[in-house]
Amino acid sequence: MSDFNTLELITDSRGFATLWLSREAKNNAFNAEMIRELIIALDQVQADASLRFLVLRGRGKHFSAGADLAWMQQSAELDYHTNLDDARELAELMYNLAKLKIPTLAVVQGAAYGGALGLISCCDMAIGADDAQFCLSEVRIGLAPAVISPFVVQAIGERAARRYALTAERFGGQRAREIGLLAESYPLGELDGQVEQWIANLLQNSPAAMRASKDLLREVGNGALTPALRRYCENAIARIRVSAEGQEGLRAFLQKRQPGWQAQEPRS
């Protein structure tokens, strides 16, 4: 694993990784270095076949306060083409996170502003604290949530995205759950315990089946029925049934035992 200045990538022996945004003194705000390091970290995660899933978190009080002020000031002095290069770098990060082969879970506390909503929206699932604060704040400073907008719309729907992108209203964890940005929200003091429960639940599942399901759902998209999609789905279930983990899961179920990918209960 690479050494990072703005991140920590920690692999758990149970078979997953936690990627921490780690600019606590800057409330985990984005800058060019963090974006580049996130791209590198995701490449490492993608290449590690032993990982079952990824948890994305922020160190300290806040998940991420959005863009770093010093970086924004530098961007204001750049010409169009250099700004375009910056936008392409951010887009690479968002698309790579959205396309990651393994499931992703974001855990949100404190502030999640601007581009931070992009990271959350790119993850397959997200949970957070009831008192977390979310904001698509770009229009307040004369900008637009351009690069992150496709992912935000997928996460919360077009109507809610229009409201929050145009008003820059802040909303809390419970509202984020209502509109689909969070799967669940919890009191802040319970959040770490709930993270462990989510991790324990994901560890019960076949790693290969989770990857296959993520591929399947990406192909299904909005569920529009076509002959090509029907054939894809038929082939998908046939492939997973004859796979090693598919065979193991079916045998374990029929034999009333734990499948090999689950931690075995200690014998008394």
UniProtKB/TrEMBL annotation:
Q: Which CDD domains match?
A: crotonase-like (cd06558)
Tell me the superkingdom of the source. Bacteria
Provide the coiled-coil residue spans: none
Q: Which residues cross the membrane?
A: none
**Single GO molecular function:** catalytic activity
One GO BP on record is: isoprenoid catabolic process
InterPro entries, per database record: ClpP/crotonase-like_dom_sf, Enoyl-CoA_hyd/isom_CS, Enoyl-CoA_hydra/iso, Enoyl-CoA_hydra_C, Enoyl-CoA_Hydratase/Isomerase
Q: Which family does it belong to?
A: Belongs to the enoyl-CoA hydratase/isomerase family.
PANTHER family noted in UniProt: ENOYL-COA HYDRATASE, POLYKETIDE BIOSYNTHESIS ENOYL-COA HYDRATASE PKSH-RELATED
This one is known as Gamma-carboxygeranoyl-CoA hydratase
Organism from which the protein derives: Pseudomonas aylmerensis
